[in-house]
Amino acid sequence: MTGHKKSIIIGFLFGLILLGIWASFFDFSQLWVNVKNLRLHYLGLSLLSYLAAYFIRSVRWNRLLKPLRSFTLKQTYLWSLVGNFINYLIPIRAGEAVRAILIKKSTSTPISLVLPSIFIDKFFDTIGIFVILIMIPILDIELVPTMQWLVYILLAIFIIGVLVLIGAIIAEKKLIAILKRIFFFIPDKYQNKAYSIIEMFVEGTALFKNHHRIFGEVVILTLVGIVLDGLYFYLMFKAFGFSSINIALIFFGYTLLNLSYILPQPPGQIGSNELLMTLIFVSGLGMNYADAGSLMAVAHLLTGFVVTGLGVLALSMIGVKMLDLINRSKNE
């Protein structure tokens, strides 16, 4: 059995365990009551906001790729959709490698040149941690211990990303030397290739050194994406008619929930979505368990259909078979 298959099976089983724990406390009769009262126009607007957030992130990546090569928005949007779909299925963030492979397959651009833009793209998603930290004192939120640990982990990821970006800009050679020391354990026969990739990676990460305008554009696009994400979840609350939590807390809760997707998830985010929703909105923000569970169950199902449907459509438009793409990602 291959490593990918093992990780998928283990992740899926782990997700089922999480889902079982969540379901053991959930009143499914209340789910049906809440679904019957759904306001479909708000549900439709919610999904439009969700799709818009996806598109904005593909525009951001398009801007990050600009110094390397000019790609159309259609290309980066399709590649992003496939990458998100693969991330949704495989719990080891394989979608990031898949995006680089798609560019290589479509344009013959080396993977090592593309990966820095993907790293920076994912790093900018962590800007949401600033939104979280700013909102905590403003909203006077008292985080439960598990939420505190989630914030600490995300903050650590953000700080590491900042250090790598700053290091690449002001001390490129030193950063390369440090990274080579960190990866000293790489076998001798792979070292030359690995070190050349590290050098290309750092050089590519320093793109803001000569492209200051792109930095401002990327920050603005990131903030727009965060707002659209929050709007998506706020409209989902409106669709259910839930009004016990105000809009600021909804934005706070979903921004934290969305940031958690940076971490590895079970395939299809089975169980993890429901458990994190409970942790953040029930334990942290005092929402009713049945209402939070109903909202997350519907949101998870609908977004799962959207991610899968758009991912399969994008694969079809690009002309790539999913299994071939996953197998290729193992060999790159």
Account of the 3D structure:
It is a single chain. By secondary structure, the protein is mainly alpha-helical. The chain has one domain (40-331). It has helices spanning 3-24, 28-36, 40-65, 73-89, 94-107, 111-125, 128-139, 145-170, 172-182, 188-205, 212-240, 247-259, 272-284, 289-318, 322-331. Helix 7 runs antiparallel to helix 12 and helix 8 crosses helix 10 (188-205). The radius of gyration is 20 Å and the shape is globular. It starts with a helix and ends with a helix. The model has no long low-confidence stretch (mean pLDDT 80).
Order of helices and strands: HHHHHHHHHHHHHHH
Helix fraction by DSSP (H/I, runs of at least 4): over 70%
Number of strands: 0
Shape descriptor reads globular
Q: What is the structural class? A: mainly alpha
Q: Radius of gyration in whole Å, from Cα? A: 20 Å
Q: How many domain modules?
A: 1
Low-confidence stretches: none
Query: How far is it from the N-terminal to the C-terminal residue, by CA?
Result: 19 Å
- How much β-strand is present in the residues? under 5%
> Largest sheet, if any?
none
- Total helical segments: 15
* Global mean pLDDT: 80
Features:
332 residues, 15 helices, globular, mainly alpha
TL;DR of this structure?
With 332 residues, this protein is mainly alpha-helical.
